[in-house]
Amino acid sequence: MKAFQFRLQRVLDLRVSREQKARRSLASINRVKMRLEEQIRQAETNRLQASTDLRSGMVGVLSIEMLRVHASIGQQHARRARQLVIELAAIHPQFEEAQKSLAKATSERRGMEFMRDRAHREWLRHCQRVERREESELVHARGEVA
Known about the structure:
The protein is mostly helical and 146 residues long. 89% of the residues lie in helices and 0% in strands. The model has no long low-confidence stretch (mean pLDDT 90).
């Protein structure tokens, strides 16, 4: 008997390809998201450090110019953190869409794999029936010869 061939193999291959593409897309967006989250943490750390530097500069003789510089640096860090949060919020819908796309592609691939597995089981049953029939015919033919 010839080897099993799934007649929808091209469709299954296409579904696997789509799933891989969706997985790569999600990974790409996730890398951007993680980079932004890390930059937000760094900006917050910088802002806290600037705040600490400002407070430490308030000991002893106060220089208005130095206080102004430290306050300005703190505000710059806070602005940068807000900008990064806005960028992260803008990516969120893309991230959710990529997750949905991957879930759909995975579901479609699994459906095709289920069909392939079912067709393979049916092919195996057919092969077994053919073998049993051929064995039965051989036994029957031997019985007639003897």
